[in-house]
Amino acid sequence: MKRSFKKPLVSVILPVYNQDAYIEKAISSVMDQTFQDFELIIVDDASTDRTLGILRRFAARFPKKIKLVELKQNLGAGGDICANKALGHSRGKYIARMDADDISFPTRLEKQVRYLENHPDVFLVGSNAYVIDRDGFVIGEKREPSKSDEIYNAYFGFHPLIHPTCMFRRKLKDGTNFKYQIIYSANNDYYTFFKLVCQGYKFVNLKEKLIKYRIHGQNATFVDMREKFMNSLKIRNAMVANYGYIPSPKAIVMIAMQTLVVYMLPQKFLLGIYFLAKGIIRFEELIPTISISQKIPALKRAFSI
Question: Which CATH class name applies to 10-302?
Answer without folding.
Answer: alpha beta
